[in-house]
Design a protein that fits this description.
By secondary structure, the protein is mainly alpha-helical. The chain is built from 2 helices and no strands.
Length: 128
C-alpha cells in the first residue's frame, strides 16, 4: 500500500505528507514513454492490485488455518495409530515368549519320553 500511496494512486490519510499532486493525462497517454501515471485505480476490482493482494492475503490465511487444523487431526490420528501399534507389538511379543516357553516344555517332554522309551526298550530286550 505504501508504494501506491507514494505514487498518488491511493488517497493518503490527512496526517500523511503529500509529495505531489495527481498526474495530468493527455488524450492518449503514452505507454512506454513515461513512468507510471497511476491511471488504474489500485483499489478497484478486478484490476486493482490492492484488492488482489488483500484477496490473496485472505485466501492464504484461510489455507493456513485449514493446514493447521489438518496437521492437528493428522497428529492425533498418528498418536492413536502409534498407541495401537505399541499394544499390538506388546501382545505379539508376549505371544512369542509364551510360544517359546511352550516349545521349550515340549522339547523337554520329548527328551524325557525318549529317555523313558530307551529305558523301556532296554528292559524289553533284557526280558526277551
Amino acid at each position: 500500500k505504501d508504494f501506491y500511496k507514494s505514487s498518488g494512486a491511493v488517497k493518503k490519510e490527512s496526517w500523511e505528507f503529500v509529495q505531489r499532486g495527481p498526474v495530468a493525462l493527455g488524450e492518449k497517454p503514452s505507454t512506454w514513454a513515461s513512468g507510471y501515471s497511476g491511471v488504474a485505480d489500485p483499489a478497484a476490482q478486478p484490476g486493482g492490485i490492492l484488492a488482489v493482494l488483500e484477496q490473496v492475503s485472505a485466501d492464504f490465511a484461510k489455507m493456513e488455518s485449514q493446514t493447521h487444523a489438518q496437521e492437528s487431526s493428522d497428529t492425533e490420528a498418528y498418536q492413536t495409530d502409534m498407541q495401537a501399534c505399541e499394544i499390538e507389538k506388546a501382545r505379539r511379543s508376549k505371544e512369542s515368549d509364551m510360544k517359546s516357553q511352550e516349545r521349550k516344555r515340549v522339547v523337554e517332554k520329548q527328551g524325557s519320553l525318549e529317555a523313558s522309551r530307551k529305558s523301556v526298550a532296554g528292559e524289553l530286550e533284557a526280558t526277551e
